[in-house]
């Protein structure tokens, strides 16, 4: 095929990691998954192997949206184990053990560090970048859901995907300010599809064909919340979950809609399997986590 952009929502259980691959092969990771167990690190077990499968263990840009362990803990392993060219975050920390570990890595100067806020952009390749929509320059923290980075992937001026991290209502209200272009083909649901991030106006403004919830099977939080699913569907988005479909990959080539692949066929995906005719199954070697133990 010709030039293409790929975005994959990895299957990391009740956590989140999103990889982006540009037309020239540049690799970006937004969050690195994680969890509450000291015995299982999805960064080591899943994310790093997925990034290095069939290519050198190099990551051009690692982005951390916020320090919650289900987004940051796996990234800490990636930041040490892979050849990372740049680390990007909001600069907002907290008093957690993960925050202390990140501070220690930054102090070692393993890679260049960039702090970004709303109005800036993270260049990936010529014509491909991430717009930063939140938090504002004046935000002083600490790192939490409401100060999560909110990012929009843009290629040649076209919005491909919205990545709101764990942003909740206050943060999303800021993103919804008039005049901001939020259009995108894909929405990675904020806070895994939690009701605390329910914002029907956001779904309408984005106008995504697909919404993806990164969550674990049978999770105790009930993510994605049924009200979120209904609101997304009302806005014209089909809702996929990593719990049901495994890793979900979107591939853009040209001006048309993205090709969508999932790691598990829709027939095996349970009651929430949607639009099986629009989904295809990834080759087995690309099924980064066929069934997470989390």
Q: Point out poorly predicted stretches.
A: 267-279, 283-294
Largest sheet: 9 strands, mixed
Shape: globular
Helix content: 10-25%
The strand order across the widest sheet is: 8-7-5-3-2-1-16-17-18
What's the order of the H and E elements?
Answer: EEEHEEHEEHEEEEEHEHEHEHEEE
What is the rounded Rg?
17 Å
Mean pLDDT level: 89
Number of strands: 18
Tell me about this structure:
The protein is of the alpha/beta class and 294 residues long. It is built from seven helices and 18 strands. The protein has helices at 42-52, 69-81, 97-107, 169-175, 200-206, 226-234, 242-245, and strands spanning 5-9, 18-21, 27-30, 58-59, 61-63, 83-84, 87-89, 113-115, 121-125, 128-134, 150-155, 158-163, 186-188, 210-213, 238-241, 248-252, 259-262, 280-281. Strands 8-7-5-3-2-1-16-17-18 form a nine-stranded mixed sheet, with no helix packed on it. Strands 9-10-11-12-13-14-15 form a seven-stranded mixed sheet. Strands 4-6 form a two-stranded parallel sheet. β13 (186-188), α5 and β14 form a beta-alpha-beta unit. α2 runs parallel beside α3. The longest helix is centred in the first third of the chain and has 13 residues, at 69-81. The N and C termini lie far apart (36 Å). The model is unreliable at 267-279 and 283-294 (pLDDT under 50).
How does the SSE layout of this entry go?
Blueprint: E1 5-9, E2 18-21, E3 27-30, H1 42-52, E4 58-59, E5 61-63, H2 69-81, E6 83-84, E7 87-89, H3 97-107, E8 113-115, E9 121-125, E10 128-134, E11 150-155, E12 158-163, H4 169-175, E13 186-188, H5 200-206, E14 210-213, H6 226-234, E15 238-241, H7 242-245, E16 248-252, E17 259-262, E18 280-281
Parallel strand pairs: 3-5, 4-6, 5-7, 7-8, 12-13, 13-14, 14-15, 17-18
Antiparallel strand pairs: 1-2, 1-16, 2-3, 9-10, 10-11, 11-12, 16-17
Helix pairs in contact: 1-2, 2-3
């Amino acid at each position: 095929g010709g030039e293409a952009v790929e975005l994959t929502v990895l299957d990391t259980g009740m956590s989140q990691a999103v990889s982006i691959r540009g037309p020239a092969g540049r690799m970006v990771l937004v969050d690195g998954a994680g969890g509450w167990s000291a015995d299982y690190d999805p960064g080591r077990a899943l994310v790093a192997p997925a990034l290095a499968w069939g290519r050198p263990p190099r990551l051009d840009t690692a982005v951390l949206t916020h320090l919650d362990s289900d987004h940051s803990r796996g990234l800490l392993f990636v930041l040490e184990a892979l050849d990372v060219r740049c680390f990007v975050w909001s600069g907002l920390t907290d008093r957690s053990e993960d925050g202390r570990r990140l501070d220690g890595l930054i102090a070692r100067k393993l890679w260049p560090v960039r702090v970004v806020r709303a109005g800036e952009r993270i260049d990936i390749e010529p014509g491909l970048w991430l717009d930063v929509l939140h938090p504002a320059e004046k935000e002083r923290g600490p790192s939490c859901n409401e100060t999560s980075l909110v990012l929009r992937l843009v290629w040649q001026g076209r919005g491909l995907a919205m990545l709101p991290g764990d942003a909740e209502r206050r943060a999303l209200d800021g993103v919804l300010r008039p005049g901001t272009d939020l259009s995108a083909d894909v929405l990675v649901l904020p806070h895994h599809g939690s009701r605390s991030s329910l914002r029907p106006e956001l779904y309408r403004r984005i106008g995504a064909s697909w919404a993806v919830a990164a969550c674990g099977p049978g999770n105790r939080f009930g993510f994605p919340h049924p009200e979120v699913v209904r609101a997304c569907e009302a806005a014209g988005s089909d809702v996929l979950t990593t719990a049901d479909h495994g890793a979900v990959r979107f591939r853009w080539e040209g001006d048309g809609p993205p090709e969508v692949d999932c790691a598990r066929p829709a027939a095996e995906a349970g009651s929430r399997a949607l639009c099986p005719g629009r989904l295809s199954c990834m080759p087995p070697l690309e099924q980064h986590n066929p069934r997470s133990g989390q």
